[in-house]
Request: fold
Amino acid sequence: MWDNLLRSPDPEQFRMYEFFINARSIRFLNDQIIIPVITEHIDYNGFYKNANAQDFWLKSYNFLMIDIQSRKTGKLFGHYPPIFRKKNIPTFSLLSFDTKSDHVYCSYGADSLIYVRDHHGKLLKSIGYAASSINGEYPETETFEDYSSNRIQHEKKYGYYKRIKVVNDYLFRSYKKDGDIGYGLQIYKDDDLIGDVSFSEEVYIIGYSNGCYYGVLPVNVDLEQFRIIKFKL
Reply:
């Protein structure tokens, strides 16, 4: 099986994938565990601009379901949005997702849209508004070495969308602005953007308790302090 997949990559095969550690999330959805995945094939990926790169962005899957009761692998679902087929921009292919009720919400670094899927993985709709401080002029990379050596520099220079969190009736999405002008937090309710707040550092929403929402800022390593914000909507 491995030899066959090495010679003839097949994005429909579970064995083509591994846990996508950059997504930093595993979620429940009803009786399923939702795991972000990415292909581990040396040739079939978008980190090299080769014959398989566009096919990777078009056909490779983002998520894998595991049935909690049977402990068996379920279906693969979710593909990268069209923006990644136009330019080879793996630096901004970071995805973030969350689940609520019967839905999966997914956002990608280079895409202003948020994709909403049902518990079967079927795409229901897309929502979302572009942040004015993200121009989207992302540079292509053609080799893994190019990606690896320029990733941090490109992330600092260009704005991109980061993490999402669904709490109660609200969806929060953090993002980095262009250059050194800071970060932002979009707030959605009923598919509409109702707030866009600027921060000097990234803030990530973690939950709700007793009428207030909570978020965290980066840990202050020098002072050994966690920094938590508390607010109402």
Q: What stands out?
A: The first strand starts at residue 17 and ends at 19. The CA atoms of residues 8 and 44 lie 9 Å apart.
